[in-house]
Amino acid sequence: MAHEDRTRVIPGRTPESAAMLADVKRAMAITARLNRLTFNDADEVRVLFSELIGRQVDDSFLLIPPFYATGGAGTRVGRNVFINQNCTFYDLGGLDIADDVLIGPNVSLITSGHPLEPSRRRAFTTAKPIVIERNVWIAAGATVIGGVTIGENAVVAAGSVVTRDVPANTLVGGNPARVVRSIAE
Asked: Of residues 114, 120, 121, 122, which has the active-site annotation?
């Protein structure tokens, strides 16, 4: 079910949760094949990533394996996107990556989670979208949590944990990430 704050709630032991598990198994099979490839196999990486997300990526798309995902159908990727090695995408809530985005190594984009209350933690999976606007750079080891939009031209510093929207043309850093300064030209 969808909520006004764009949160999707998937109760356990339902047809919807069974479909989610099937998507995870499918994604893991595709990424296992993708992770046997190297930097020199860019064309084949694009073919497998396109299979994963269910739509053709542009020839300018570049991903360096290994790469990990729990879905794929909720991911949209623009032109001239670079994804460095060892990234993890959980796209259950939706993951929109615009043109000219750079994603550093060991970046995690996590749209899903669970309720905080111990009694409900295993009963539901919750998911919120992540939107990464044009010309964003997410540096090494950053984690972006569901419900976040990263504004155009923004930079997320290495190791940051992004839990709130990032304004356009800013550098954010820390845990939780906060605006460090403007980077407007």
From this structure: 114
Query: Residue 179: what are its φ and ψ, rounded to 5°?
Result: -65, 125
Burial per residue of 97-118, b for 16 or more beta-carbon CB atoms within 10 angstroms, e otherwise:
bbebbbbbebbbbbbbbeeeee
Tell me if the bond preceding 66 is cis, omega within 30° of 0.
yes
- Residue 184: the pLDDT is 83
**Containing H/E element for 33?**
helix 15-34
d(Cα 146, Cα 58) in Å, to the nearest integer? Answer: 25
Q: At what angle do helices 42-53 and 15-34 cross, to 10 degrees?
A: 180
Does the predicted model carry a pTM greater than 0.85?
Answer: yes
Q: Does 114 qualify as catalytic in the annotation? A: yes
CA–CA distances in Å: residue 162 to residues 9, 63, 89: 21, 22, 14
What six digits make up the tokens of 53? 């997300």
Beta-ladder partners of 125: 10
pLDDT of residue 5: 72
Report the SS3 class of residue 42.
helix
Could you list the mean pLDDT of each consecutive 10-residue stretch along the chain, which spans 185 residues?
Answer: 67 92 96 97 98 98 97 96 98 97 98 93 94 98 98 98 98 98 90
